[in-house]
Design a protein that fits this description.
single chain; alpha+beta; 2 helices
């Protein structure tokens, strides 16, 4: 398993321990891909997982650029159109290593 998939599994498990329910992983549309789609109460949560073992090009959060945010938003719209509209938010899970103790969960990481 590659490190990106391992990071996504770690994030999904950790978020489930926080009370979220996993709906889908690696949801794809013609606009892009969303790593995790979770449910938090009545909200649908679209989660971007980022693993950065080096800060040479910025930290993990810096890699979620405005262009990436737009792709995520369009992919989320596609998901909601297919599965029913619901309140939603975009979260990020940032990892510097595959160590859950260093996991950073950012709720409402960005707005569309």
């Amino acid at each position: 398993m590659n490190s990106g998939k391992a990071a996504e599994r770690l994030a999904a498990t950790w978020l489930q321990q926080q009370g979220l329910k996993l709906l889908e992983s690696n949801y794809r549309s013609r606009f892009g891909e969303i790593d995790l789609i979770m449910q938090d109460g009545r909200e649908i949560v679209f989660v971007e997982v980022r693993l950065r073992s080096s800060n040479t090009f910025g930290d993990a959060g810096a890699s979620i650029t405005p262009a990436k945010q737009q792709k995520l938003a369009r992919t989320a719209e596609d998901y909601l159109m297919r599965h029913g509209m619901a309140p939603c938010r975009f979260d990020a899970v940032l990892l510097e290593s595959l160590d859950a103790r260093q996991l950073q969960w950012i709720r409402n990481a960005f707005e569309t």
